[in-house]
Every structure is written in structure tokens, then in C-alpha cells.
């Protein structure tokens, strides 16, 4: 169930999404409030699960992770045991940035970041060694056009 947020909460969240390292004073000034009410709202949104883990965003290319693959997975095994094993394998693989279970012809889509095609092949070989998969299609992203962590408020 969605938490009820007012316009001030949304302004605060917008500022935090842009730069969570801002001081409370900066955020309060930008949203037209004072420090204590902003802090209380942030605390309440954390308690209600609106604000989760805070982290930094790294540049993958600056770290040598220049290849981004979208991996389409089809399976003919839909048993709970297979699914649990597959999910545990994905959670252990640091290359997997995102994993989604889908409706339709494709069962899962993975976003995988690696240094190059050879590194992707090593990932792929390790994956199919651990889990029986019916079909895997890898799509190399040629250009990232948009990437954001900011949710529309």
C-alpha cells in the first residue's frame, strides 16, 4: 500500500534523489522550510519504508565495466526448487545489476555489467554450469541513452 505524501514530502524526496549528500540546511532552503521539520519528514519517510538504503552511484565505464548486456532467459523448469536455485545463483553474481521475472514469452531479463564480451562469456558459462536453462539470448547495449535512479514524483 502506498504511503500518503504531501507536496513538501515530494519536494524533499526530489532533492534527495538528485543529491542525497546535501546537508539538511541545503534541502530545507531549497524546499522552503527549516531544518527540523525537514529532518522529521525524512525520518518518518525512512520509518515508513519510502526512503531505503542510501548509496553512491559509480560510473561503470570509469571502473572498466564497459559492456552492458541484457540477458533474456527462457526456462522449461517452473518448479519452486529450480526457481529458488536460479535466484540464489543470480544473487551471488556481482555482474547481475538487475533481474526481473516477466510475463510473456521470456521468463527473466537480467542486466549484466562486465568488462567485455569475453567476461560476459565467462559469466554465461558459469551461469549455465550452475543452473539448467532452456534458452539464453544476450543483447549488447551499444549506447546507454537514459539511465536514472530518480522516480517520477
From TrEMBL:
InterPro entries found in the cross-reference section: AsnC-type_HTH_dom, Dimeric_a/b-barrel, Tscrpt_reg_AsnC-like, Tscrpt_reg_AsnC/Lrp_C, Tscrpt_reg_HTH_AsnC-type_CS, WH-like_DNA-bd_sf, WH_DNA-bd_sf
GO biological-process terms attached to the record: response to amino acid
Gene3D superfamilies documented for this protein: 3.30.70.920, Winged helix-like DNA-binding domain superfamily/Winged helix DNA-binding domain
Domain HTH asnC-type: 5-66
Pfam families xref list: AsnC_trans_reg, HTH_AsnC-type
Organism of this sequence: Pacificibacter marinus
Assigned GO CC terms: cytosol
Keywords, alphabetical: DNA-binding, Transcription, Transcription regulation
Name the UniProt record assigns to this protein: Leucine-responsive regulatory protein
GO MF terms held by the record: sequence-specific DNA binding
Amino acid at each position: 500500500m502506498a504511503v500518503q505524501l504531501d507536496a513538501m514530502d515530494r519536494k524533499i524526496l526530489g532533492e534527495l534523489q538528485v543529491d542525497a549528500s546535501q546537508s539538511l540546511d541545503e534541502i530545507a532552503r531549497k524546499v522552503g522550510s527549516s531544518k527540523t521539520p525537514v529532518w522529521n519528514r525524512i525520518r518518518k519517510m525512512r520509518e515508513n519504508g519510502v526512503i531505503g538504503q542510501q548509496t553512491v552511484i559509480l560510473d561503470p565505464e570509469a571502473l572498466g565495466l564497459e559492456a552492458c548486456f541484457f540477458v533474456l532467459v527462457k526456462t522449461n523448469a517452473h518448479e519452486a526448487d529450480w526457481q529458488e536455485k536460479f535466484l540464489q545463483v543470480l544473487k551471488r553474481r556481482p555482474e547481475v545489476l538487475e533481474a526481473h521475472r516477466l510475463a510473456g514469452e521470456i521468463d527473466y531479463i537480467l542486466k549484466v555489467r562486465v568488462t567485455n564480451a569475453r567476461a560476459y562469456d565467462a559469466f554465461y558459462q558459469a551461469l549455465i554450469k550452475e543452473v539448467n536453462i532452456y534458452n539464453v539470448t544476450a543483447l549488447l547495449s551499444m549506447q546507454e541513452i537514459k539511465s536514472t535512479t530518480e522516480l517520477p514524483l
